[in-house]
Amino acid sequence: MELLIFILNDSDTLEKIMVEFANMGIKGSTIIDSVGMANVLSGCEEFSLFSSLSMLMNNGRTSNYTVLTVLKKERVSKALEIINDVTGGLDKAGTGIAFTVPLGQVIGGSFN
Question: What confidence score (pLDDT) does residue 27 get?
Fold first, then answer.
């Protein structure tokens, strides 16, 4: 099993990804409101440059979404493909990031 973690800025993108995940048979994800480092530093006088950078990169948004999804290893590639397709590519600045972490044991939940 793998833990897919992705951080996105756009709630519309998140909703579309969740719909595609459901269509793929992924039954659950945990979604957490989160704040990036640039937003935290934007209020700090020493790093006032971060304020303008943060606003540019996030189109004025002050929060983003961290999504946690436990998947069988063979489903990770398809999930990442969905994320990239819906967002137009995570390689675009300010879009987000995705990565996986291998899981040793998982108790609870149901996974296809």
Answer: 86
Q: Mean pLDDT of all residues in the chain?
A: 84
* Residue 15 burial by Cβ neighbours in a 10 Å radius (0-12, 13-18, 19+): exposed
CA dist., res. 110 & res. 69, Å (int): 12
Distance in angstroms (rounded) separating the CA atoms of residues 107 and 63: 31
Grouping H, G, I as helix, E, B as strand and the rest as coil, residue 16 is helix
Give the distance from CA 74 to its chain's centroid.
Answer: 19
111 pLDDT tier (thresholds 50, 70, 90): confident
**2-102, CATH topology level:** Alpha-Beta Plaits (3.30.70)
